[in-house]
Amino acid sequence: MVSSKSRKSIMKSLVTGAIAVAALGCGALAVAAETEVKLPEHHWHFKGPFGTYDRAAAQRGYQIYKEVCSACHSLNLLSYRNLEDLGLTENQVKGLIAEIQVPDIGDDGSAIDRPARPSDKFKKPFANELAAAAANGGKAPPDLSVIIKARDEGPDYVHALLTGYVPFDKLTPEQIKEAAATKDDNYNKYFPGHRIAMPPPLADDKVQYADGTKATLDQEASDVVEFLAWASEPHLEDRNRTGVRVILFLLAMAGLMYAVKRQVWSNLH
Questions:
Q1: What is the pTM of this model?
Q2: Could you tell me if 227 and 43 are in contact, meaning their C-beta atoms sit under 8 angstroms apart?
């Protein structure tokens, strides 16, 4: 049997341990709060109950994806004909994809490459996930079809990530120590841990926009976010319009029912 003195000693040890664990937990939360970087907020046309897409920006974003992102990242949920929803005609879509070769099977059953058609899914940059991982340091780049929906602040996070790279020679000693960064690493202010395998994909004048817009880093990041937001929710505008109509209908119905109630019960008051 355990003596009363021993029980008191054990209870004291348990309480002391619990306090220590709680203190460590609070300390960890405090450190996390101190090191967490607040994302810059942007105004996006597609946010809110009346959100719409800036089609000119989304078209430029597709150009960014095609010329920069598509070398590593796929868009498995989209077909080329979906680009017509961005205001492009069928002939314009055919012109945009004219140089893209997609894998297919010939009449004799052999593997061939043929020009892409609007009905084709977006071409994958790699034959399979193993090939993608082998070409990218052991980890396959993520598909971008719903990357904007991956977190609540998705548009702001993707924009911050694309614009948050800092060259090693411009890092402070504290930043180098915090991320354990070396000259061979890519430092990003907004990526968890700050060390990211992906090199900076965008820069000023990375592309030459077809509509003549000046291609600054911020403009490129904003445009590709607009395109990826559309890719993740291509029917957002239709859904918003339907929601507004339903609300207006319910308001009208509520008014009508109130008027009927007043008429039916008017003789009883």
A1: 0.79
A2: no
* Alpha helix segments (H runs only) across 103-190: 129-134, 154-163, 173-179
Q: Residue type for 233, please?
A: E
CATH topology of domain 151-220: Cytochrome Bc1 Complex; Chain D, domain 2 (1.10.760)
Per-residue model confidence as pLDDT tens for the chain (269 residues): 445 444 445 444 444 444 443 433 444 333 333 456 789 999 998 998 889 999 999 999 999 999 999 999 999 999 999 999 999 999 999 999 999 999 999 888 888 989 999 999 999 999 999 999 999 989 999 999 999 999 889 999 999 999 999 999 888 888 888 878 778 789 999 999 999 989 999 999 999 998 999 999 999 999 999 999 999 999 988 888 888 889 888 999 998 888 888 888 877 65
